[in-house]
Amino acid sequence: MFGSEKQQQTEDESGGARKTKKQKKKANNWRPQSPRDPFAMLNELPEEKQQEIQRALHLFNLGPTVPKTLEQAKKHQYHFWDTQPVPKLSDNVTSHGPVAEGEGGVRTEPYSLPQGFSWDTLDLANAAVVRHKNTSITNYKSSEDDDNTMRLDFSEEYLKWALQSPQWVPQWHCGVRVNSNKKLVGFIAAVPANVQVYDKEIKMVQVRLLCVHKKLRLKRMTPVLIRELTRRVNLQGTLQALYTAAVVLPTPLSICNYWHRPLNTRKLMEMNYPGLRQSMTVQRAVKLNKLPERTKTQGLRLMTKADVAAVHNLLQSNKSKFDLSINLSAQEVEHWILPRDGLIVSYVVESEDGGLTDAFGFNNVISKLLNHPVHTELKEAHLLFSICTSTDPVDLMEDALVLAKFKGFDVFIALDTMWNQGCLEKLKFNLSSKSLNYYLYNWKCPVIKSDKVRITINSFICNLAVFTS
């Protein structure tokens, strides 16, 4: 009897226990879960959904806007740049010379990083490192357009060309890695350059490819990257730098506008390329942007290695026409201008007596199209340099367009620098809403007009990521 009662009691208790477990499970269904990492949640979504969310965030962003005009910049507070040797936006600069004389010693120890991160000097001679850095730069550089439909795609050859110019310094390829998994989350680089500013030639560096992981762009990593690169450059005795940005920082030396000329008009209209009038029919747009089938300049041919010395002489002979330019050695002309498969296309004009009178070149910039139903990439031809001594600049530029179209480029992009201003509207270029601002670090001089700028190296690869602090 007691055994039966005990058994019954045990069954009741076990049933109660089972009931309690069910109740707990039911209650847990309504209990709020602990907050998850929003970045992890975002990464779990399909890429198309991620792009949609980013576009929405861009449209409804109520945070501080990035200054893109001088008027906006004058109202902005630059916490970092106000501590650097650069002219203030309110300054009326009329003199020439360094902002700071470089008094005192250069810091010998690297700048400190938060716990869990460490500095790394990237070995570009290692192909595996280059491939890893290529992925990192593609993902981390602020290289997507405003509506998040295109992303730059740098090849290994492009990175080596951009960062391994003659006399390059390995310590100037400065990266930040996560200690736990060695993941690259920040990068900045510089290459040596002899920059002509008015009548002075100054030994400088060109800042290249400032990249910060998207999760760390608001964590003050950018100022640390700039400071560390500056320290490493100063240790080599160089105190000035040239850099560009699409936003207004203190203080632009020159503001140049982007212009683009459609080559593959049908494709550009299908992908809603900025600047094309979508109200126009495809047939009419194709007819409007039609180019000649052949080039018209006599003696125009592809540049060869034997032309390096003559092209160098052409560059040297007309540098006095400009107030901002890069003086290239013959070795640098070979590196930056000589044609490379899939990267650089350069042509020269040979006269009847065998001398060279004109030259131009453009390089290949590929952007991935994100989630487009038909097209996967956009091929842009960026004008690299142009030298006109005997040929009409309009004819020479038109020949560049014809050759770029023949080589399969979709659009031709140029700045209103050099003598381009007289060619752009005549050849049906469209003015872009974007501009490129040139800056000098630790050097002050009067403002330079865009037609007095001749930077023969593609300014696009000098771009700093969006950074306004």
Account of the 3D structure:
This protein has 469 residues and is of the alpha+beta class. The protein has two domains: 77-245, Aminopeptidase; 254-458, Aminopeptidase, CATH 3.40.630.170. The chain has helices at residues 2-30, 38-44, 47-59, 70-74, 127-140, 156-163, 221-235, 265-270, 282-288, 308-317, 330-336, 393-406, 421-424; strands at residues 117-121, 150-152, 173-178, 184-197, 200-212, 241-245, 254-262, 300-302, 324-326, 344-350, 356-369, 377-387, 411-415, 430-441, 453-454. The protein has a 15-stranded mixed sheet that branches. Helix 10 (308-317) packs across helix 11 (330-336). The termini are far apart. Mean pLDDT is 83; it is low at 1-17, 26-35, 59-63, 137-146 and 464-469.
The gist of it:
By secondary structure, this protein is an alpha+beta fold. It has two domains: 77-245, Aminopeptidase (3-Layer(aba) Sandwich); 254-458, Aminopeptidase. The protein is built from 13 helices and 15 strands.
Keywords:
469 residues; alpha+beta; Aminopeptidase; 2 domains; 15-stranded mixed β-sheet; 15 strands; disordered N terminus
Order of helices and strands: HHHHEHEHEEEHEEHHEHEHEEEHEHEE
Query: What is the class of the largest domain in the CATH system?
Result: Alpha Beta
* CATH topology group of the largest domain: Aminopeptidase
Number of DSSP helical runs: 13
Shape: globular
Q: Major sheet: size, sense and barrel closure? A: 15 strands, mixed
Low-pLDDT runs: 1-17, 26-35, 59-63, 137-146, 464-469
